[in-house]
Amino acid sequence: MKPPPFAYHRPESREAVDRLLAELGDEAKILAGGQSLIPILNMRLSSPAHLIDINGLAGEAREPVHDDGAVRFGPLVRHADAEHGAHPLLDAAMEFVGHPAIRSRGTVVGSVAHADPAAELPAALLALAGEVRLRCANGSRTLSAHEFFVGALENACGGDEWVEEVSIPTAEEGTGYAVEEFARRHGDYAICGVMAAARTDSVRLVHFGIASLPIVTDVSADDDVRARVREALTDVEVADDLHGTERYRRHLAEVLGERAAARAAVRAV
Amino acid sequence: MDVGPGDRVAISLTVNGVQRDVEVETRRLLSDALRHDLGLTGTHVGCEHGVCGCCTVLVDDRPVRSCLMFAVQAAGHEVKTVEGLAGPDGELSPLQQAFKEHHGLQCGFCTPGFLMLASTFYERAGEMSDKEIREALGGQLCRCTGYVGIVNAVRAAGKSA
After folding, report:
1. Is residue A2 part of a domain?
2. Which of B84, B105, B136 is the last residue of a domain?
3. Which of B26, B59, B69 sits opposite A8 (nearest CB)?
4. Which structural domain range is residue A42 located in?
5. What ipTM, to 2 d.p.?
6. Which residues contact B90 (CB under 8 A, 6 or more apart)?
7. In sequence order, what are the residues at sequence separation of 6 or more whose Cβ sits closer than 8 angstroms to the Cβ of residue A226?
8. Would you state the pLDDT for residue A185?
């Protein structure tokens, strides 16, 4: 239960991170909040030869930045600093992201980059059509959330790339948002969760915690939500483990989907 | 800064108001540095992967799981542990006193984590519902008393604050 030895790097600029990754590639892992990485190291599920601790980057914003129709999260914005006021969906989602002590350290960008299929922020990013900006020594590129998430704990970063920013469009006037989640303990990973973003004529649902990727379902106002969710999950391989059987998760997906859609729709005008 | 595997780094951090200098391997967890290098064994270590909450301490006044942070990352920061709660003469803090009076502990293993986390919000507990207090404490596990006494203690401490 102790991390294996690693070489430790603490660069002070984004360019220095680029240079280290260009040199070390897949041998290195970025350490930001560490709330997913350090448990993995402690349990020795992974032993990267190098850790690049980005907590020493100089001049980084510590809070979300609102500009130009978007809310932008730099690599050191911690959950605790993004809990209130960044976006109504995040305001609702953040209380489900780990526990207070996790949110003190964990970062928004780190959670997105980790791409855990049971985590809230990747699902929120998909619900809000957010974007992820990657960078490396040769430049940067921006991917949609849909392009970024490739599989369970897998993202589209190349070996020398890292995530320098996550952004979401500013909340749209008249759109209603809601989050529903079921976990064994408040703050633990979801057995099933749903993000909902509703307009007057439709609602977008994003289910997380049930499959290797969050599942996006668009439901129109006339649809039966439970039937639409059932249909959307027909060909999806739904998780079946000691926390919940597949049948149970499919049931939760329908019930929580219906609740989230109803709560979001009430707020849509 | 670049440090090779197994190499040690000299760091300086403030623990309970006192500056402490210590040499650690970069993989040294803050929890282990507190217990083994600084002799502050009040911080307990349960699961060592961020589930049980026993090792919760404050870093720059925010609750942090000390098993999910490297000691080298605490360099230059202020850490507060359970040893920092009581007065210099050993007088219990209002929160500790409330835990004692309301059966908020039995074996005491989880207690340092509960105390440190609750110390960040108990003064507002008077305005919090039981559900809110339970959710705020939700990251901590207790395996003997159950949580009724703990919630009562936090609420009582909030009233006396």
Report:
1. no
2. B84
3. B26
4. 7-56
5. 0.94
6. none
7. A254, A255, A257, A258
8. 84
Residue A102 touches partner B, C-beta closer than 8 Å: yes
Block residue for tokens 């500009």: A67
Q: Do B78 and B119 have their domain in common? A: no
Residue A120 main-chain phi, psi, to 5 deg:
-75, -45
Query: Residue A269: which residues within 8 A CB-CB, separation 6 or more?
Result: A174, A176, A200
Query: pLDDT below 70 — which residues of chain A?
Result: none
User: Are B16 and B71 in a shared domain?
Assistant: yes
How many domains are there within chain A?
3
How far are the Cα atoms of A107, A185, A208, A237, B152 from residue A190, in angstroms, in the given order?
Answer: 18, 9, 7, 17, 28
Nearest to A137 by CA among A154, A158, A155: A158
Distance CA B38, CA B135 (A): 32
Spatial distance between the Cα atoms of B139 and A189, rounded to a whole number of angstroms: 12
pLDDT at residue B161 tops 80: no
**Residue A1 is assigned to a structural domain of this protein:** no
Is residue B118 included in any domain, yes or no?
A: yes
Q: What are phi and psi of A79, to 5 degrees?
A: -55, -45
Give the residue numbers in B contacting A (CB under 8 Å), as ranges: 1-6, 9, 25-27, 29, 32, 48-50, 53, 56, 59, 62-65, 67-70, 72-73, 117, 120, 134-136, 138-139
Does residue B139 form part of some domain?
Answer: yes
Domain that holds residue B146: 94-160
What's the start-to-end Cα distance of chain B, in Å? 44
B111-118 and B148-160 helices cross at what angle (nearest 10)? Answer: 40
Question: Are A90 and A49 in a shared domain?
Answer: no
- To the nearest whole percent, how much of chain A has pLDDT over 70? 100
